Amino acid sequence: MKCYTPVIYKGLSPCKPNAIKSAVLQSEQVQYVIKQLAKEMGESPDIIQEEATEILDEMGHRMQLGAVRFFAFTLSKIFKQLFQRVCVNEEGMQRLQHAIQEHPVVLLPSHRSYVDFLMLSYLLYTYDLALPVIAAGIDFLGMKIVGELLRRAGAFFMRRSFGGNRLYWAVFAEYVKTMLRSGYAPIEFFLEGTRSRTAKTLTPKFGLLSIVMEPFFKREVFDTYLVPISISYERILEESLYAYELLGVPKPKESTSGLLKARRILSDNFGTIHIYVGQPVSLRTLASGRINRCPYNLVPRHLPQKPSEDIQEFVSDVAYKMELLQIENMVLSPWVLVAAVLLQNLPAMEFELLIEKTLWLKGLTQTFGGFIEWPDNLCAKKAVLSGLTLHSNIASLVDGHVVLNDKGMEDGAVGEMVFRHALAVLMCATYRNQLLNVFVRPALVAIALQMAPSFRKEEVYSCFNFLRDVFSDEFIFFPGISLKDFEEGCFLLTKCDAIQTSQQEIYPTDKGSGTVSFLSAMFRPFVEGYQLIFRYLSKEMKEAFTEKQFIPGVRNFVFQLLEKGSTQCYEALSSDMQKNALSALVQLGAVKKKKMPSGFTYNVNQEAVSKILDMFDDSADAIPEHNEFLFPEYEILIEPEEPEFPADSTDDEQGAEDTSKGAKEQEELGAAGTADEAFQSLDEETLEAMAKHETEEEKIFQMFKKQVAAEPEQIIRYCRGGEGPLWVSGENRPEEKDIPNCVCGAKRIFEFQIMPQLLNHLQVDSLGESIDWGTLVVYTCADSCGGGSEYLEEFIWKQDYSMGCTL
Amino acid sequence: LVNCFPKPYNRKAFWICSMLILSLMFFFPLRQELLKWNGWGYNDSKFIFNKKGQAEFTGKRYRLGGMVLPTFKEWIEKTFGASLEHKTTSRASLNVNDVPPSIVNEEFLQDLRATKISYSQDAEDRVFRAHGHCLHEIFVLREGMFKRIPDIVVWPVCHEDVVKIVELACKHNLCIIPFGGGTSVSSALECPEEEKRTIVSLDTSQMNRILWIDEKNLTACVEAGIVGQDLEKQLAESGFCTGHEPDSMEFSSLGGWVATRASGMKKNIYGNIEDLVIHIKMVTPRGIVEKNCQVPRMSTGPDIHHFIMGSEGTLGVVTEVTIKIRPVPEYQKYGSVVFPNFERGVACLREVAKILRALFASICLFLLFAKGHALKPQVASIFTSFLDGLKKFYITKFKGFDPNILCVATLLFEGDREKVLQHEKQVYDIATKFGGLAAGEDNGQRGYMLTFVIAYLRDLGLDYYVIGESFETSVPWDRVLDLCRNVKERIVRECKEKGVQFAPLSTCRVTQTYDAGACVYFYFAFNYRGISDPIHVYEQIERAAREEILANGGSLSHHHGVGKLRKRWMKESISDVGLGMLRSVKEYVDPNNIFGNKNLL
């Protein structure tokens, strides 16, 4: 049996868990709250004291060495079964060992799996370090035997929410603080609050962090060490569970039988675990110069005190800093790169190409500071193959192509197919997501570059800023340093030659277009997913709703779109993304969150949401390339023009350019209508009346204006073989002889005209490179010769506004 | 005219010719002669290493005088890594050529001569009054020279003289810096470098008479220049005492106590200076400020005494003070209690302060042995004789306690015999509850004696590359332990960061108890070998320690005052508005900044 003599905090006065419990109950802090409650509720303090004791019993740990040994023994067996290797940074463990002796230590691991804290306790035990006491969710107590074992191994349990219960809060806070102050053992909890189902780092929760920081603020301890720990899994134990959960299939409650069933996975292989114990961060150093000490000096320390604003801000900053440190040290496996590449090349990708792309991405990731575990001698092919083998449940190699395993039942209904595919995509995305944390800054710059109307730095930055705000819950950004993030993104993009910057401008390089488009494609699921969700909110949610209503609603909405095939954004089905999008809107002020007795309700401010949508739409996020050669890309919506006057013919041209599937939700950009015979059939008298007042020139322009007024945003008018275009001016109209015949000899006839409104969308109005026209009229072969797919030259006539005509 | 006196009024020449006129009044420079020019206290009293290499305290003024301290050398070597071979030597005497010249307007000198107030422009006199006893000041004396010192020293002998001097200063626009005992540890006596006017050092030492004693009301009116021990000695002749005994009472003056809000060791019975003072007369550029009667208390708006007490020489010169007196106590008894650790000791003090309040004269808690390696018990310290007793004691009775963290409380009881014995029993009963054991009267007395000689220790350290200082604060009871631990830790940490190569000594004691809190003293010293600018490093560490004190809910100062050393924290300490209130008082009382020592504000 292992001799276990852990190093301990130098100021530790040894005590038993029970001594701690009674110290907590007798503490001024808890006694104060008990007295307060007794006064308020008119009950005797003894009853409340009783209640406090119960809370403490429910919560408290009973660390026993025997249990720890038992646990360590079984765990080592299980871990050996499940994982190939567990890699730990030795120097991190040594630093931790020093830290534990010096000051109270708080361990802040990332949270991806239940394995996290089992593994960490096991690790500390193996390295002869004091076992941490762990704040775990109370759901664990449901697992009868395991719950008790966990408790004996040092876990203590907190209810998931106890905002309203002052007694619980007081007892819990005091319990944690007592253990911290006495240096009894390292305290461990998860900043993310819960397991991240998407493998993206979740935005931090502040409650526990502010509790553990308080003893320092009150100077009850000299310092506190915060130790960020990054645990990365080559394959996450709960991967499919998470995907189901994200898709709304309810999560199984933690129970012992569940865990026993989990034994089935024991026969499976989950690859390697990497644990990186970060540099302990001294809270004192972080706080120096930031905290106004007055509030803590003027109130007795045992009174519960609402933290001041600057304290709250400080706590939040520390939380983000710790998460960023976790991210920095997260180890990325080759499979993560493979997943990222694969997701951009669905449904199937050639194996060789995948290898090539993966290698390229490896270089890029390293440039961006990602921490890739890629053995020196391992060739790319082997790395990709071993990833595929390990994740054979997600993707497989078929006939030299890599495909997602999304075929459940062969003849499933459409809905079933969509669900299967979404499941596979989400599982795959879980791995790609690990890369996003590293890529988010340069990628948002890349997207901003495409969104911004010009390459001017301010405009790119303002787009970046917008994106950063929108995605503030999706990715981890240190609060308030938008400009620094932007500069970091620019710096990284410059480093990989994707962009060049001058004093005023940022522009993509030819060489870097691949990188830029890869980055924006990588984040496209989020950009598109958010748009879908925003659209749902702005169109469908007229009344107050709760999160419980919102999630299924938006899920159905997206599901239907997917079934129709009008979107490919499967990730929008993820409840995680849906929640994040909603909370982003709350933060942007477009959705009001109200606290009701039954929980939170939300109210959408339609206008604000559509404004945010406009930001996306105005931008050209859907354009793969936005450079000097290509104009932004839009969808054209085609509708027949409602004739103002009875018309003799109403051709239905709608089939002509049907790029607008599911266009009902789309905002109208332009419309082309039937050529208007109305022009011809205008009352002669009216015309004459007009002529009395206006010149011929103005008359034509007035006609133009009147016609256009019905659909002011139209950009194209289509009427093949119709009577002719709508001229803007009487001048410079082509005679018949001006229009050359087609190469085949047939006459060219009018097909469509492009309206000047298009100019509004082309973004070429900057001085020196602007273009202008009144209308562009296209004539095509009357015989429609050359029916094949090759391109033919046709004839275009450009008419400008006449000089005499001013708009 | 100036040229007629190339060395105007050389002090000795001045003395000789003045003697003819003023005879007895002129023993005063003797006092200066008795004191070290570059260290603490009397010339004849200091720690030395004798020929055998053993430490010894010279002179006959203290009970420790002439005693050999056999383990002291080892202690200093172990604690600081100091070695007797590595010695720095101070200059033997002041180099007069280094001293900045005295620049005094001849018209003023003429006016001054007309008042018959004695004065001096001698370099030694001026340097002696250019500093207090901060570490950096002593360091400058040993190795360098002040950039700015007083241009002239004047010795008024009575209130009227002071009035005349202040009038002259206003007339000629001079800067006056009052000087009492010169024991300041807040840089309060340092002359502002940028001061362009003539700086007059107003030495109150000749205003040292007890003007009257009122036995019916138990008050005495005393001139402000009197030094603490003289006051007690002279009052004792009439069977009275003030009971105000700050550690510096051998040298500090009554006026200085008032100007800095001093605190005495026996304040539990007698009170601090603000409790003792009945009436103050102060000369300001606006005129004289005083109350119209000598009453125990009055409700006439904010107490103007509180503008004066703690004004640190920025408003005027305190000339006469009426102070409460008490009959000399019939019976005095020392005592001591040993506690297993500092925490228990503090808890006991808190309890004693709660239950017995003002019934005993003094209780003072030492952390006897510093924790860990800094100070091992077997080489226990200079408290040798003190410790020998204690050691024996703890060996016989304290087996099982960790000697590394023992701490001792010294006690002093005063009053009539019966009461004293009764209180003593009560204190010991309480102490027992906290695991304390009575450790004898002798040990208590030795402990008190040490408070007076401890200040001499620094001069010895300076000879061996060890610099140190003490500083104090007041703190609520519930924060005492946290504050002590954190400040000590901070000091150790800062030393490490600043490149101090030897572990520093950092220890503390609780010296005063109040209803709501305690006064805590810190001692901090380190060996500075290998550091190019030790004073700068020292000041950075001291500043960090003060920051730490404030962050832990301690005060800027309990009784040392602010001076120029701690000015930077004034705003934080008393708020913007508070500072503005003080400023407006200064502005009204002294619009031309005649009292321009730049303290406090």
UniProtKB/TrEMBL annotation, chain A:
Biased composition (Basic and acidic residues): 658-667
One Pfam family linked to the record: GPAT_C
UniProt-annotated location(s): Peroxisome membrane
Catalytic activity: dihydroxyacetone phosphate + hexadecanoyl-CoA = 1-hexadecanoylglycerone 3-phosphate + CoA; dihydroxyacetone phosphate + an acyl-CoA = a 1-acylglycerone 3-phosphate + CoA
One biological process term in Gene Ontology: synapse assembly
Pathway: Membrane lipid metabolism; glycerophospholipid metabolism; Phospholipid metabolism; Lipid metabolism
EC number per UniProt: 2.3.1.42
Keywords from the UniProt entry: Acetylation, Acyltransferase, Membrane, Peroxisome, Phosphoprotein, Transferase
Region (Disordered) location: 644-675
Top-level EC class: transferase
Record domain Phospholipid/glycerol acyltransferase: where: 105-234
SUPFAM superfamilies: Glycerol-3-phosphate (1)-acyltransferase (SSF69593)
MF (Gene Ontology): glycerol-3-phosphate O-acyltransferase activity; glycerone-phosphate O-acyltransferase activity
InterPro entries: DHAPAT (IPR028353), GPAT/DHAPAT (IPR022284), GPAT/DHAPAT_C (IPR045520), GPAT/DHAPAT_LPLAT (IPR041728), PDCD2_C (IPR007320), Plipid/glycerol_acylTrfase (IPR002123)
Protein origin, superkingdom: Eukaryota
Acidic residues: bias regions: 644-656
Role of this protein: Dihydroxyacetonephosphate acyltransferase catalyzing the first step in the biosynthesis of plasmalogens, a subset of phospholipids that differ from other glycerolipids by having an alkyl chain attached through a vinyl ether linkage at the sn-1 position of the glycerol backbone, and which unique physical properties have an impact on various aspects of cell signaling and membrane biology.
Entry's family note: Belongs to the GPAT/DAPAT family.
Quaternary state and interactors: Part of a heterotrimeric complex composed of GNPAT, AGPS and a modified form of GNPAT.
Protein name listed in UniProt: Dihydroxyacetone phosphate acyltransferase
Gene: GNPAT
From TrEMBL, chain B:
Pathway participation: Glycerolipid metabolism; ether lipid biosynthesis; Lipid metabolism
Residues binding substrate: 458
GO MF term (any one): FAD binding
InterPro entries, sorted: Alkyl-DHAP_Synthase, FAD-bd_oxidored_4_C, FAD-bd_PCMH, FAD-bd_PCMH-like_sf, FAD-bd_PCMH_sub1, FAD-bd_PCMH_sub2, FAD-linked_Oxase-like_C, Oxid_FAD_bind_N
Top-level taxon of the source organism: Eukaryota
Location in or out of the cell: Peroxisome membrane
GO cellular-component term (any): peroxisomal membrane
Gene3D superfamilies found in the cross-reference section: 3.30.160.650, 3.30.300.330, 3.30.465.10, 3.30.70.3450, Uridine Diphospho-n-acetylenolpyruvylglucosamine Reductase, domain 2, Vanillyl-alcohol Oxidase, Chain A, domain 4
Enzyme class: transferase
E.C. number(s) listed in UniProt: 2.5.1.26
GO biological process: ether lipid biosynthetic process
Cofactor section: FAD
List of residues binding FAD: 178-184, 260-263, 312-318
One Pfam family recorded for the sequence: FAD-oxidase_C
Record-annotated active site: 521
Main location: membrane
Subunit note: Homodimer.
Family according to the record: Belongs to the FAD-binding oxidoreductase/transferase type 4 family.
Functional note: Catalyzes the exchange of the acyl chain in acyl-dihydroxyacetonephosphate (acyl-DHAP) for a long chain fatty alcohol, yielding the first ether linked intermediate, i.e. alkyl-dihydroxyacetonephosphate (alkyl-DHAP), in the pathway of ether lipid biosynthesis.
Name the record gives this protein: Alkylglycerone-phosphate synthase
Organism: Serinus canaria (Island canary)
